[in-house]
Write a structure and sequence with these properties.
heterotrimer, A mainly alpha, B mainly alpha, C mainly alpha, A: mainly alpha, two-stranded antiparallel sheet, C: mainly alpha, two-stranded antiparallel ribbon, 28 helices, 4% strand, elongated
Chain lengths: 506, 103, 710
């Protein structure tokens, strides 16, 4: 029991890996492998619930910290811990992974490696959220890429080679600067420990000379190295073009995780590393960041509206929604220490959580209809509502959550971001409203083209007859929908934890 | 007693004659004869050095010389056997004509 | 149960009904409508209890029923949400509860409950009728349960909006209604026109909503609170009025007010965002139409009334409000004159009447606007339900003759219906007269007269004049509608076979027509000649108390000009309408079918060219094709070939020539060349070898000798 208490985070982090390794030895029975993967991915979720019950939202700093010797020569230690911000992300990850695995039960091609990759992916993502050591952070950051690359490359649709390569190269290209900047910090302070770095890095006096340059210049360069790496991952305009391709080509569950969790890594990087490590630069460059964010919001919305591929439409919606996260972060950076910053930042974290729910749901629903019709072209659908009333209802519900309808989750976070950003970044927020308007346009376009209008008779009869969403698929959607509604009505359940952590940090 | 250098001069002369024979005679048997001369020149040296050294009791020089005899005898027997063998195949014992071992 | 608890519970029954129907009972029509109507009844009952208790409280404005809880943690503090019943929300709650209950009841009959399922009916399309014993009879709506679920959610949204004590939950209810209007307008989603109308409604109102959200964010940033109680105290208002914003020279209050007002422009269909409302008539006739027209659009006006303390702080904003309201009133009235669809006339009349209210607010006629809001809700609900009843009767005729080409909504296909549908006729007449402002009896007269009086008294002569003309047009097109529909002879076979509708539809008509008359009597001004003072001007006292000293101090002095004006325009319009259309048989004989009016001043066409097409082009071509695929991906795609170029450059100009050719192949070739050239010395002649070794011995020996000795 004592071991359990002190190693809770490690257990959450490594259970998926261990399960994946055990899967290697499972007999060649697809059904068994699926259920094994599903059940073992539930374990981290249950552990996260345990973590939640023992988590003290009022305590400052990190909790459940664990620290082991890892790479002594360069003084990097295996240091993990959790606070309110990372907790919400861990909860999201451990919740979405089982659902994604359940959603993948319809995969019949090479089930074992597929499931194993998902479990590895979970460890990679959790590692980023839990890491309190820059080097560990970076290691997990890169680990997450590999399974996703193979998932897209091996189980994706037609254009998967292009998409997976683009995804990999783009992200790796972005993180080159990150690696250098991480090493710079490590060399300067002889440690990669975040908790230590937070203090030392900012306590450097302003006229220090580093590497022959004034500290300000070094910090500016390092700031952008971090920021670009995370900006690619979020992604903000104009680094977003990998996303529509990767999402569109990835298998359904891959898109769920990609949109649901992987994009959050970037935003989380901003919150965990960029703002605390570079408070001054965050203030100076908040405008630039806000421009990118507003670009993502507006162009994401327009881009989404301009698509004819259902999945691409949803993919662009991620750009639009994640733009709000970055807008909130930019505002928090500019107004650090004020109530505006707290509201904007809480909103940004909540928006990450909410987008995780709604984007995963949307991608899954696109996948459901794609599995049945083998087309994603919006013009091929039309008037499907009478054929699939339950699916239609779920699609409208999830779309509305994505649209930010009050009463559902998206609204709360978008409202908080708009509220928090209004004072520091008035003009940007006002322009972002254009994106919010077009969010409505593209969501309604999706519903209009798929469900409404005259029935496309092709799907009504014979071998092409569209079948209703099945029980397994409803089970995947049910927790997501329940959370969307509950968070919309009573956001306090998670926002309280986030808000306390945010207030303590910024 | 005759000084050592006399013996050495003798031996050197004998050696040079042998060497000359080896280098210029065309007949393989004659070349073998030249080799014998050179070996014997060495023997003279060995014995002479032994005689003028301070370790007369050891008999080293004579032992060396005897070993050289034995080796020379063996060498000549093998050499002549080869010459005969070559003669049987090529019908010649002229060294210049036996130049197959080239590129 | 304490009143506060009761208020909290008010919106819940319809929401529960929504979830129950969607999740469990959607297969059973009877259970679904029982749940929905039952929920509406519970809410109505609760609302009446709250209303009566509110009447019993003295100085309700100062001591409203209120209760709030923490909802959203924001840094160190919490955003509170809660409920509030003050005179304004009490009076709005009153009419909302009544209207909602009546709509729910009416829907049962309207969707042909109890009739057989249709022969060829299809979910997503209106029912086409069923054949029973060789007769065609109306068939039940295939998505009957779904309809009740949607209006349940709608009622939840409206009640939430009304009982809110803060802007945020008000906005929540506001948007939920937006969703429901989308779902209900697009209820028959199989129809192309309904699908497009639904999107148009949602998007047009959303234009207003995003501005409103911005206004809320601004308000929240400045005041740190969103609840009315905190915002509307004098210090906060003073701050708001004094902070400049740098936008059009408005103060913070002015800008916030303007942003919130733009939300109302969208929701209450004011010019230039009015375009969605006429198209919203695509929804199931007339129930959803009535929801949008009588209830939801009232929410927009309610929001402005609610925010009046802020909006009224800035004169620029007030002028904009008055201008938009007045313009919309006359603008929509002109269009209504030329419409032939019975519902579209009402839709434009709604826009016009909402313009009256907005204009009234713009000239600070707070009580008059509220009064007109309530009376309008009753008589417009009555009219919409009445028109639905007419259409339903006409559909009966259409099914009888089997000629589906006859549009049951076109007034020129009707005529003489007063004998066929007496209840509908009389109630519609009451509603129409109320809308026209028929003097003394109808509610519409008192409220409209009050607006005109206020405009006159506050020296807004232009507004007064414009509104008077609009009122004349209102009376005119209303009488045109009544004349074409009910008077004269039946112009088609279908109209001859029209049929009175069932009791579930006529009962709401009767109830609402009672309100359409009597509700005017609670607000008769004391100074009115003859009957003034017989009944206390309760409405003015009750709602006017919201404004404190300011409202009570309004001087009560009689002025004959506005009264005479409203008498003239109402009676004149009605008379003109009757005589102009008494003998009109077809659209060709109608002299007012002017194409610019018929085509709604071409606003839709203009928007299509100016906004919709460019937006689509911007999305599909500029952003997707040019920027993302062309420019950004173009740059990326340079990286690929560029990397390839660098790679093959290294291969072609370094690896191949230097490493491979020079170092690799070169060393082999050099060895080969050396060997080739040294080959001649290997003669195979043993003696030459010996000579060579001898020479080498000397050379090496000599070298060693010199090196070692040196």
């Amino acid at each position: 029991m004592e071991y359990f208490n002190t190693h809770l985070l490690s257990l959450i982090l490594f259970t998926p890996t261990i399960a994946a390794l055990i899967m290697l030895f499972l007999p060649d029975n697809a059904q068994l492998q699926r259920w094994f993967a599903f059940i073992s991915s539930l374990v981290p979720f249950i552990l996260t619930l345990v973590l939640w019950s023992r988590f003290d939202p009022n305590a400052a700093g990190f909790q459940f910290e664990e620290k082991y010797v890892w790479y002594e020569a360069i003084n990097s230690s295996f240091h993990i811990g959790v606070d309110g911000i990372s907790f919400s992300m861990v909860l999201l990850t451990t919740l979405l992974t089982p659902l994604a695995i359940l959603a993948s039960f319809s995969v019949t091609d090479r089930v074992k490696p597929y499931m194993m990759l998902f479990l590895f992916l979970e460890t990679g993502m959790l590692g980023v959220f839990l890491a309190l050591d820059l080097l560990i952070f970076f290691v997990f950051w890169e680990i997450g890429l590999v399974p996703m690359y193979f998932l897209i490359n091996q189980w994706g649709s037609a254009n998967r080679n292009y998409a997976s390569l683009k995804f990999m190269i783009y992200t790796m290209g972005g993180s080159l600067g990150l690696l250098l900047a991480v090493q710079l910090l490590g060399v300067l302070f002889g440690t990669f420990d975040l908790v230590v770095l937070y203090q030392q890095w900012n306590s450097l006096s302003a006229d220090t000379i580093l590497l022959g340059m004034p500290i300000h210049t070094v910090k500016t360069i390092a700031f952008w190295a971090f920021a670009i790496a995370f900006a690619v991952k979020v992604p903000v305009w104009p680094f977003h073009t990998w996303l529509p391709d990767a999402h569109t080509e990835a298998p359904t569950a891959g898109s769920m995780i990609l949109a649901g969790v992987l994009l959050k890594l970037g935003a989380y990087g901003f919150i965990r590393l960029v703002l605390p490590l570079y408070p001054v630069e965050s203030k100076i460059f908040a405008g630039a960041l806000a421009v990118l964010a507003v670009g993502a919001i507006v162009f994401g919305a327009f881009g989404s509206y301009g698509q004819t591929d259902f999945k691409r439409l949803v993919a662009y919606s991620s750009v639009n929604h994640m733009g709000f996260v970055v807008l909130g972060i930019a505002a928090a950076g500019l107004a650090a220490g004020t109530a505006d910053a707290h509201i904007a930042m809480s909103g940004a974290v909540l928006q990450m959580f909410n987008h995780g729910l709604s984007a995963a749901g949307m991608f899954f629903l696109v996948g459901v209809i794609y599995e049945r019709t083998h087309t994603r072209n919006l013009d091929d659908f039309g008037g499907l509502f009478p054929l699939v009333p339950v699916y239609g209802g779920i699609l409208i519900f999830t779309s509305m959550a994505s649209l930010g309808l009050p009463g559902l989750n998206g609204f709360v976070s978008e409202f908080m971001i708009v509220r928090g950003s209004y004072q520091p970044l008035t003009i940007y927020t006002a322009i972002a409203m254009l994106g919010l308007l077009f969010t409505g346009a593209y969501i309604l376009k999706g519903i209009k083209k798929v469900l409404h209008g005259p029935l496309n008779e092709h799907w009504a009869h014979g071998e092409h007859k569209l079948t209703e969403i099945n029980l397994r698929e409803i089970i995947v959607m049910a927790p997501l929908m329940a959370l969307m509604l509950f968070t919309g009505l009573w956001p306090m359940w998670i926002l309280d934890i986030i808000n306390k952590a945010v207030t303590a940090l910024f | 007693m005759v000084p050592l250098s006399w013996y050495l001069t003798l031996a050197a002369g004998l050696f040079s004659i042998g060497l000359f024979g080896v280098l210029v005679r065309r007949n393989a048997v004659a070349i073998l004869l030249g080799v014998e001369l050179m070996l014997n020149a060495v023997n003279i040296n060995l014995v002479a050095f032994w005689r003028y050294s301070e370790a007369l009791a050891s008999m080293n020089g004579q032992v060396f010389a005897i070993i050289v005899f034995a080796v020379a005898a063996a060498e000549v027997s093998v050499g002549l056997a080869l010459v005969i063998s070559v003669y049987r195949r090529r019908n010649t014992v002229i060294a210049d004509e036996l130049d197959m071992l080239k590129w | 149960m304490s009143t506060e608890t009761l208020i909290w519970l008010l919106p819940l029954p319809p929401a529960l009904a929504f979830f129950l129907i969607v999740l469990f009972t959607n297969k059973s029509k009877a259970v679904s409508h029982t749940i929905a109507v039952g929920a509406a009844f519970l809410s109505w009952l609760g609302a009446m209890v709250v209303f009566i208790r509110a009447l019993g409280v003295e100085h309700l404005a100062e001591h409203p029923f209120e209760s709030a809880i923490n909802w959203l943690p924001t840094g160190e503090t919490y955003l509170k949400i809660g409920v509030l019943i003050d005179p304004l929300s009490a009076i709005v709650l009153f009419f909302v509860a009544w209207c909602v209950l009546m709509i729910f009841l009416y829907s049962v009959g309207y969707h042909n409950f109890g009739q057989p399922a249709g022969d060829h009916d299809h979910p997503g399309l209106p029912p086409h009728g069923a054949t029973v014993h060789g007769h065609t009879v109306p068939s039940v709506e295939p998505m009957y349960s779904r309809f009740f679920a949607f209006i349940g959610l709608f009622a939840f949204g409206m009640l939430t909006l009304v009982v809110s004590d803060n802007v945020l939950t008000m906005f929540v209810g506001w948007e939920i209604m937006g969703l429901c209007s989308y779902l209900l307008i697009g209820f028959w989603y199989g129809k192309e026109s309904a699908r497009n109308a639904a999107i148009k409604a949602f998007m047009t109102t959303r234009v207003g909503d995003v501005f409103m959200l911005l206004g809320i964010a601004f308000l929240y940033s400045v005041t740190g609170s969103l609840s009315f109680k905190d915002i509307f105290n004098e210090e906060v208002l003073k701050v708001l009025a004094s902070v400049p914003t740098g936008v059009f020279g408005l103060s913070a209050a002015g800008l916030i007010g303007l942003l919130l007002f733009i939300g109302t422009v969208g929701k209450s269909a004011q010019f230039p965002l009015h375009v969605w409302l006429p198209d919203a008539m695509e929804g199931p006739t007339p129930v959803s139409a009535m929801i949008h027209a009588a209830t939801m659009v009232s929410a927009g006006v309610y929001a402005v009334i609610r925010m009046f303390p802020i909006i009224s702080l800035d004169h620029t904003t007030m002028n904009i409000v008055a201008l938009i309201g007045t313009f919309t009133a006359i603008f929509a009235a002109t269009i209504a004159v030329a419409q032939n669809d019975i519902k579209r006339v009402l839709a434009y009349s709604t826009i016009s009447q909402l313009g009256f209210m907005i204009a009234a607010l713009g000239i600070e006629a707070y009580v008059a606007a509220t009064f007109h809001l309530v009376t309008h809700a009753f008589f417009k609900a009555l009219l919409f339900l009445g028109s639905g009843s007419v259409i339903h009767g006409m559909e009966h005729g259409v099914l009888h003759t089997g000629n589906h080409k006859v549009d049951p909504q076109d007034m020129f296909n009707m005529g003489g219906l007063r004998n066929k549908m007496p209840i509908t006729f009389w109630t519609f007449l009451i509603g129409g007269f109320a809308l026209s402002g028929f003097p003394l009896i109808t509610a519409g007269f008192w409220s409209k007269d009050e607006i005109l009086t206020d405009a006159w008294k506050h020296d807004h002569y232009i507004i007064f004049g414009t509104l008077a003309i609009a009122a004349f047009l209102t009376a005119f097109y209303t009488m045109r509608q009544i004349t074409l529909t009910f008077f004269g002879e039946a112009r088609t076979k279908e109209a001859e076979h029209a049929h009175e509708t069932p009791w579930t539809m006529t009962t709401p008509l009767i109830v609402l027509s009672v309100f359409a008359i009597t509700f005017g009597w609670v607000g008769i001004p004391e100074y009115f000649p003859g009957i003034g003072g017989l009944l206390p001007n309760w409405f003015h006292e009750f709602v006017g108390s919201m404004l404190g000293e300011h409202g009570a101090a309004e001087a009560a002095k009689f002025d004959p000009i506005p009264l005479i004006t409203s008498l003239v325009v109402a009676l004149g319009g009605l008379t003109a309408g009757y005589f102009a259309y008494r003998n009109v048989k077809s659209p060709a004989e109608d002299k007012l079918q002017i194409s610019v009016l018929k085509n709604k001043w071409y606003v839709d066409e203009l928007y299509n060219v100016v906004f919709i097409k460019p937006a689509a082009w911007f999305s599909e071509v500029f952003v997707s094709k040019w920027m993302d695929k062309g420019f950004i991906d173009g740059i990326l795609h340079i990286f690929g070939p560029a990397t390839g170029g660098v790679g093959s450059g290294i291969r072609n100009y370094f690896d191949l020539p230097i490493i491979n050719h020079f170092l690799g192949d070169g060393s082999a070739e050099a060895t080969w060349w050396i060997g080739r050239n040294l080959r001649p010395i290997q003669t195979g002649r043993i003696q030459q070898y010996l000579i060579l070794s001898l020479i080498l011995l000397f050379v090496v020996g000599g070298l060693l000798y010199f090196l070692l000795m040196a």
